[in-house]
Amino acid sequence: MSEPTPLLELQGIHKRFDSTVALDGVGFSVCRGEVHGLVGENGAGKSTLVKVSAGVHQPDEGRIFIGSKATRLASPREAEAAGIALIPQELDLFGELTVAENLFVGRRRPRTAWGGIDWKTMASAAAEVFERLGLCVPPRATVGQLSTANRQLVAIARALIGDARVLFMDEPTSALSDRETERLFRIIEDLRTQGVGVVYISHRLEEVFRLADRVTVLRDGSRVITDATRQLTADGVVRHMVGRELTEHYLRSDVEPGRERLRVEGLTKKGEFRDVSFALRAGEVVGVAGLIGAGRTEFAQTIFGLRKADAGRVLLDGDEVRISGPADAFAKGIAYVPEDRQLQGLVLPFIIRHNISLSSLGQVSHAGWITPRTERSMTEQLAERLHVRGARLTDPVNHLSGGNQQKTMLARCLARDPDILLLDEPTRGIDIGAKAEIYRQIDELAKAGKSLLVISSELEEVLGLADRVLVMREGRLVADLDRAEADRERVIGLATGTVASGDSDHEDPSANAEEGVPAEEQAEAPR
């Protein structure tokens, strides 16, 4: 049986920008009804390959086939006419226009016999494609009023109304909730059954493995491998992406912890966590593991002053302190990187430089006015230290990739030279290369004598980085493990309650449950 003719095929594509080789003889194809995963680190060539496919860039060498016909895609309009559509990570919709108007942007609008715009036909076409996607949005609704998930579906609808046969989706779930992500997955499956070829570009390998029939890995502008997903493993894909094992990124220097910097005793916030006690020393990295809802974020935010504790105390260098808020925490040498950089951390309309200097305006100001030269010098040094790449410091921070946005957040914290850093999901939603850079910074900070508390839902990350591991369950700290005694099975068992914690430094809360009262009710913790 012969192989099916691809909807789109690229052969031997070369693309150079000045002295930089972006693509070096790359081949790629997508077939009818196929989901093809495209992965690689930042700078691997994914964006350039997509833009060549979508007519934004023209290759220096190589050939492009639509079906079995060789073609030249000289512009995005030509690519669109050939049935190729791109849904970028930053959606290119017009918020002030209606949904129906957005669907027809860049293409000829239907006209009435009198020469006016045929709004009825536009609304009918919109309703037809919305039914295909299961999207319940009035065609006359303004796009700016829609949720991120619905705006993304409008972008898909716009591609389909243009009869797209190949759909490139760039990091489509980066701003979606779990529920919205599941809805998008169902739509992708529907598109597959309708014969649309989908190219799924994501750093979230679990999504790629769930959806893709084949996976292509790019590294340094070259194609490393294309294979059926069933023949690959996540670890193998990571090795192809970075040229080494992911565990090699967890390089921790041999640092002897110094004096105690932070001690928390009996910290309690009703309904969120109860009786949390631990200590953190200079040069030490302490990881925090647990299920979502275990209270990890809440107790870190309480230490930083974002929440007010109902009981317990915090000691810095042996002295009890009361932290009234984030500004007070910064003043006392504590910094916090939140788990959601876009909602809780960055000011997206601000330029990168202002986002970095936001927590240290006093250091870059004189007589109440920011000194541009001082701010520029400080932010350039920090951006270089953390290898923030992809845009000028005068560009809006939302122009950066997720990894560079996260490094911008860390740069903001380091601008205050804190002694204690609370890092909440520091590598969530970023690519492998950016993760490696964050890991390197954590190690460098520990070597410099800083104290780090790292909360992560990636257990391998916690085990690879931490000198000690705290395990939380249902708002209680159930274990405080040394690196040598923290292994995957034990931590998972403690986090889920399938392993008793009697042999650790902290006792299992269920062991002291009052007669007839469940332990979770005593802890008053969220489930």
Automatic annotation (TrEMBL):
InterPro entries reported for this sequence? AAA+_ATPase, ABC_carbohydrate_import_ATPase, ABC_transporter-like_ATP-bd, P-loop_NTPase
User: Which Pfam families does this entry report, sorted A to Z?
Assistant: ABC_tran (PF00005)
Q: Which GO terms describe its molecular function?
A: ATP binding; ATP hydrolysis activity
Gene Ontology cellular component terms for the protein in this record: plasma membrane
Q: Where in the cell is it found?
A: Cell membrane
Keywords in alphabetical order:
ATP-binding, Cell membrane, Membrane, Nucleotide-binding, Repeat, Sugar transport, Translocase, Transport
| Domain of life, per lineage | Bacteria
**Membrane topology value:** Peripheral membrane protein
Please classify the protein's predominant subcellular localization into one broad category: membrane
Skewed-composition ranges (Acidic residues): 517-527
Record-linked PANTHER family: CARBOHYDRATE TRANSPORT ATP-BINDING PROTEIN MG119-RELATED (PTHR43790), D-ALLOSE IMPORT ATP-BINDING PROTEIN ALSA-RELATED (PTHR43790:SF3)
Protein name according to UniProt: Sugar ABC transporter ATP-binding protein
Q: Which organism is it from?
A: Egibacter rhizosphaerae
